[in-house]
Amino acid sequence: MERLNSVDHFHWLRQRLIADRESHIPTLIISAGTCGQASGANDLIRIAKRELLAKKLTERIRLRITGCHGFCEMEPSVLVEPQGTFYPKVSNKDMPRVIEAVAEGRVLEDLLFKDPKTGTPIEKQSEIPFFKKQVRTLLSRNEKIDPIRIFDYIANDGYLALAHVLSRGSAQWVIDEVKASGLRGRGGAGFPTGLKWEMLAQQPSDRGKYLVCNADEGNPGAYMDRSVLEGNPHQIIEGMIIGAYGTGATEGVIYVRNEYPLAVKHVLIALRQATQLGLLGSNILGSGFSFHIKLVKGAGAFVCGEETALIQSIEGKMGEPRQRPPFPVRKGIDDKPTLINNVETWANVPVIFASGSKAFAQVGRPNNTGTKIFSLVGKIRNTGLVEVPMGMTIEEIVYEIGGGPLDHTKIKAVQTGGPSGGCIPARLFQLPIDYESLTKAGSIMGSGGMIVMDEQTCMVDVARYFMGFFKEESCGKCFVCRKGTQRMYEILDDICTGKAVPEELDLLEELAQVVKDTSLCGLGQTSANPVLSTLRYFREEYLDHIQNRRCPAGVCKALITFRINDACTGCQLCVKHCPVGAIAGKKKEPHRIDPEKCSRCGICKAVCKFSAVEVQ
Amino acid sequence: MITLRINGLEVSVEEGSTLLDVAKFLGFPIPTLCHLEGLSPYGACRLCVVEIGEEPRTKLVTSCTYPAEEGLQVRTASSRVVRARKIILELLLASCPQSKTIQDLASAYGIRQQRFRQEHEDCILCGRCVRICEQQMAAKAIGFRGRGEKRSIGTPFDARSEVCRLCGACLYACPVCELRCTLNEPERAICGACANLSPPCLEKEPFDDMMCYLSPCMACEIKRE
User: Fold this and answer.
1) Per-domain residue ranges for chain A?
2) Is B66 on the interface with A (CB under 8 A)?
3) Which residues of A544-572 are buried (b: 16+ CB within 10 A; e: fewer)?
């Protein structure tokens, strides 16, 4: 690749790539992010390559391997451009048929997505309810780009924003634009990004300044950052270069958690390619401005997502937070001014400069501008990543985009913001998703995790699960968090196993409040949230567990019994499947479960064809 | 000079003072555990928290680490602070009931019971031993390992240290084992009598075999497995 030595040279390359693009040729797009690969996308790719070569179709059909598009429930999926045909859950057996159909310009009706209510097939991806209500500013780019080809990115308006910024030549203008856009940090706290950049710009630059991309993404159930990093790493790099230009930063670090090997691989390739082309490194596009980025891998600690612990980790020390003030913007890595922003925040920066801050601010609501990617998971029909304008209501996201609950259950609550957040009960689903509304309801926006819970989810069990997570991930430096999370877990465990007394609930609330007040860092301070928020909205469940030794959702093993009712036909199926031999009964006679032997595994209920097993 | 308001009193202090320095200077009592004069502040025990800011946006911060700021409002014994200290002391008693330092602190705050499951740990991970070894004795022989429940203090890979000079500073600094009260359980005693105020192994000869890096604490009398 020839190095580009000026902005004009860049525009020349860009025009050439756009002219070379053959948008009329049908393209098979296979989403092969980590989730796609886990669902079998690699086999589809292998088959596609084999078929295209064998049938000599390589000149007539293109194959593009991309990152995650977001409709993870339907993976491995194939998208056909330019028609926009969407084939969900394509099997290895059907893949050759798909290729044949694309070659002949046909559409395979039987393989299309079917509307769950009416059963009618929907051909175009844009018509599918999951996609229709989204505003896919970031995720749609994943469809157009092969992440390991920088030319794909440039041909799709990549690095255009950077060229625009360098042509304009004003660092102050960069900061003003980001402020005007209203972009707020997407990592969870929602701090105004423009303000943070301004603070860094004001720091003395004699010893150098750092920009960091926080890609630690430790929240269980959240994988938005992973998808953006895997599918479109250049957008983050471009965002950081623009940021460096505006703030005077000299060094950049992308801190990726070790558990994202594909993201690490793609970021390293992207860094190399961008440097080779002269878009990153010394004398960027001949402008005299230099900025270097290196990749640092995490080592398996959720606490390293906290910015001061992250700084320690980058410096090679144990990931432990420290008190702020002094804030990283003044004293960060090696005591130098450091600015840390989340992956999604950086990805939004080129969007601001491509469309202008005014256009950016039109999306969403005042003070909550732009889009946000949420990972919609749990007891929901359409699991995946959804990108929506800020201010959309929870109801719209859960029912219209998410498709509502699975089977015949009712949705009870939604957990936002990961373990540090809180649950929002179904009666509050009219709430718009914005920073202030969620905080008032006792939750937080967080990094964008949205876990849907139904009637069969026990809220006390959920609180215990999250507390167990915090207990494991607490760094242990401050006594209150280390011991507090342990003790809160002990009490929650007692409640779930029916051993708790009513005074323990008061103790739990007192302890939760003190842990929130006195912990050193955000991990400890928010560790009490699962408890406090479930107590606020689902106190009856706690009381049922303690006073009546009963789990209304039928989850807590120690408090439930499995019973066989009159619907039993004596078919012996459950007897064969029971792993502990707790079911007795002869053929054609009603069976009985021995509650002493029963391990509450639920297998009998799952295999029974007559719904004869009840949980009490 | 920085001017701030503490418990309603306006005072001017030197730049670089911590809120704990200011409170001590004025005579306001603040309990501490991981703080030791001459060592850098660590902020691990959380006992020294004070309330800063103005209603309704106040928060609790550790006074040992928080620098004095111009115009700051500080309250060292507001109800929120006292509530927090009491729970922290209950948690401490629930972990290390045998430490006289913790017992004294608890009784000063009127704590008569602790409501958690009783544990008997030897270490509260306050880090005084680590800091004194590094900062005052310039040896850096011991440090923290592990995360959360598995966090402990010791030498790298539990190997015998080449830089430890057997000075005993770690034993001197420890607030938990320094004055261990073992009146009711003589078989768990280090020295056999709760009146001992200094570690007995320092008076024994030969001294070389006795250093054990607090794992278990002061095992000079207890056989190592």
Assistant:
1) 24-81+85-123, 150-361, 365-454, 459-547, 561-615
2) yes
3) bbbeeebbbbbbbeebbebebeeebeebe
Please name the residues in contact with A189: beta carbons below 8 A apart, sequence gap of 6 or more.
none
Model pLDDT, residue B188: 43
Query: Cβ separation of A518 and B84 shorter than 8 Å?
Result: yes
Q: Which CATH architecture has domain B128-210?
A: 2-Layer Sandwich (3.30)
The verdict on A330 touching B (C-beta cutoff 8 Å) is no
Say what the ipTM of the complex is.
Answer: 0.86
Separation CA B201–CA B28 (nearest Å) = 37
Chain B closest-CA separation from residue A149 CA (Å): 40
Asked if residue B220 has pLDDT above 80, the reply is no
CATH code, A459-547: 1.20.1440.230
pLDDT in tens, A500-525: 999 999 999 999 999 999 999 999 99
Q: What is the CATH number of domain A561-615?
A: 3.30.70.20
CATH code of domain A150-361: 3.40.50.11540
Model confidence at B180, pLDDT cuts 50, 70, 90, reads very low
Is some CB atom of chain B closer than 8 A to the CB atom of A474? yes
| Two domains, one topology: B1-120 and B128-210 | no
CB-nearest to A518 from B60, B124, B150 is B60
Q: What is the dihedral of CA A66, A67, A72, A76, to 10 degrees?
A: 40
A323 touches chain B (CB under 8 A): yes
